[in-house]
Amino acid sequence: MEQKLKVGILGATGMVGQRFISLLENHPWFEVVTVAASPRSAGKTYEEAVGDRWKMDTPMPEAVKKLVVLNVNDVEHVASTVDFVFSAVDMSKEEIKAIEEAYAKTETPVVSNNSAHRWTPDVPMVVPEINAEHQKKRLGTTRGFIAVKPNCSIQSYAPCLAAWKEFGPKELVVTTYQAISGAGKTFKDWPEMVGNIIPYIGGEEEKSEQEPLRVLGKVENGQIVKAELPKITCQCVRVPVLNGHTAAVFINFEKKPTKEQLIEKLVTFKGFPQEAELPSAPKQFIQYLEEDNRPQVAEDVNYENGMGVSIGRLREDSMFDYKFIGLSHNTVRGAAGGAVLCAEALTAKGYIEKK
């Protein structure tokens, strides 16, 4: 790419906004030129606005420290400075919907980490390896649109469903064990999570049951029609881990494959990001670990820089065809990293370009 695309981050001071900032440091295609946040942060430098709330392991990139934070509600002004935006705003669902629509209507593509538009009929929910082709123009705009990434909880098992499509996955029972960074928290912010488990995460079970069907769905008459199968039932549990969502999954197939067939499909599964060699794409999207005690958060969460998915313990079951454990990095593949990869795919396909 001759000249980098100019990127804005909406909700730049929060945890996911910070992850966008750190992932986009030295990105070959994209340059963060604008940071926008709530009116109380507006007018300060990014460094001042974040203060002691920087939550990443790596230091704040020098290039953003002195950027002056703009008011995210000043849509025309923010949009005029960028080619496209990443959205990680922390507002009510209705407010998020309205502000993302407003940016798209200024002919500015919006790649969102938020859930607000995940069920808007003509907004695609994209895992680039699985359904990059769902993206279409919308809203009567010429280049503005919204694309969303699915919930972090499904990334540990939904890719397997795509890899195993020919065997007809028909029923899943899933339990997810989800890290505290999924709530935008660290142990410093949330001391009651140390040595604790909370058996409820608001809204998460419905997302974990329904969103894979939308990712596996198809486009008809400009709208996304969700897949009928598999039927999924899920429980979601918050566990005392900083990063990494684990899923324990039981699965039935229409055509029961062998274990060897299942593993072969996982490790050879690739999609558009791998074929196009996108900058953030994992070389191997899904790895299969043979050891009985893997995948583990401590060993495997950063597989492929947090952009890959680790599967292990695949074995036959007495009630279901098979069972397995999956692991993914919830704030990289599951949040900002997945959105960056989505933007790379949309750029490579010509949907995002210089204004």
Keywords:
alpha/beta; 14 strands; 22% strand; 355 residues; 12 helices
Largest sheet: 6 strands, parallel
Mean pLDDT: 95
Distance linking N and C termini: 15 Å
Structural class: alpha/beta
Q: Which percent bin holds the helix content?
A: 25-40%
- In one word, what is the shape? globular
Strand sequence of the main sheet, in spatial order?
3-2-1-4-5-6
Number of helices: 12
Notes on the structure:
With 355 residues, the chain is of the alpha/beta class. It contains twelve helices and 14 strands. It has helices at 15-23, 46-50, 62-65, 75-80, 93-105, 128-131, 158-163, 204-215, 259-268, 272-275, 297-300, 332-348; strands at 5-10, 30-37, 70-71, 84-87, 110-112, 146-148, 169-178, 218-220, 223-225, 231-238, 245-253, 286-289, 309-316, 322-328. A six-stranded parallel beta sheet has the order 3-2-1-4-5-6, sandwiched between helices. Strands 10-7-11-14-13-12 form a six-stranded mixed beta sheet. The chain has a two-stranded antiparallel ribbon with strand order 8-9. Strand 8 and strand 9 form a beta hairpin. Helix 1 (15-23) packs across helix 12. It is globular. The mean pLDDT is 95.
